[in-house]
Amino acid sequence: MKILVINCGSSSIKYQLLDADSESVLAKGLLERIGISGSKLTHKRGEEKFEFTKDIADHTEGLALIIDALQDEKTGVVKNINEIEAVGHRVVHGGERFASSVLLDDEVIREVEANNFLAPLHNPANIEGIIAAKKILPSVPHVGVFDTAFHQSMTETAYLYAIPYSLYRKYKIRRYGFHGTSHRYVANRVANILGKPIKELKIITAHIGNGASVAAVKYGRSVDTSMGFTPLEGLVMGTRSGDVDPAIVPFLQEQEGFTAGEVNNLLNKESGMFGLTDHQFVDMRDIEERAAKKDPLCMRAHNIYEYRLAKYIGAYAAAMNGVDAIAFTAGVGENSPFLRENVVNKYLNYLGIELDREKNNCKGCEIIISTPQSKVKVLVVPTNEELVIARDTSEIVKKGLKELKLWED
């Protein structure tokens, strides 16, 4: 079964075409600057890369260009559009309604739209992509896979904030968590690597990229995660502050005359590592390079970054009353031996962790980086959210076909 996986932003479409049976990527790419002059599609087929520059007005036009690239004689991997049998959509926010992936019918789309107030920057773009894809591929099933779904297994103890309960009832203000598709993939992959059932393991997954979050996965279920009502809470990130005293918001409004929107912009786009380095650096590679050369600004920023990460790992070990494995994933987690070594050796030796420095000296590899004697296993696991979306899409589509007696194993 060939499945098109799409992830729509407000002005972009990231996509992969996968063979769900072999779990191989046939083609992938990124369309940027939708609705802005200078739109560009970067399309990859194996090691070959193709670029198309053409102004794209909207997501429907953008997806049409992607479909053309997928079936073009020079760049394509399918002879015609009919070879695409299903579409899997990344949807950021499913609210409390969606604890698993679902077939996207009109009713579900309306319910996703009802969650727009919870993710005003993401859900509307996701819905645009769904509507556009259904217009171009109307005869195939479309499946929504939600970033928040994996964390719906949290209990009230973990997800409620200590504010008036009436505000939760009225506005659903609570911890939702994000990066759920990544945390789910990595936790299951850890269990496979260790050769143990996930229902017997306590795993901490650290998705560390420009956006970053940690999850406590106990016996296969998310029991806590660092991102909250929005992706702003938790770790220090590229441009996001992570945890701050809420009283800072009215303080800045009073002292600086900021509006609520300006404070929100400050905390989301002007803070984090960007703010700590005096608005000089966001890319962790630049920060680590300068920190290694004893640049005081970057050393301080990196120390704060790793300290906050270690605090969350320690907290989640306590929340689960123990931990069997810790996994680093995403752009920084997969590619920074420096971060991994500092976090483990500065803060986590009390857990009985021993790091193998030689094994840790890798980037983008799937590997156990702790020694055989280590009481807690530490791993690097490259994430694969697109594969999770394809798997969920395939499972839901096949289940529906079986019920119609149109599919046999």
Task: Explain the overall architecture.
This protein is an alpha/beta fold and 409 residues long. The chain folds into two domains: 145 residues, Nucleotidyltransferase, domain 5; 191 residues, Nucleotidyltransferase, domain 5, CATH 3.30.420.40. 39% of the residues lie in helices and 20% in strands. The chain is built from 15 helices and 14 strands. It has an eight-stranded mixed beta sheet with strand order 5-4-3-2-1-6-8-7, sandwiched between helices. It has a six-stranded mixed beta sheet with strand order 11-10-9-12-14-13, with helices on both faces. A hairpin with a 4-residue loop joins strand 2 and strand 3. It is globular and about 55 Å long. The protein starts with a strand and ends in a 6-residue tail after the last helix. The mean pLDDT is 93.
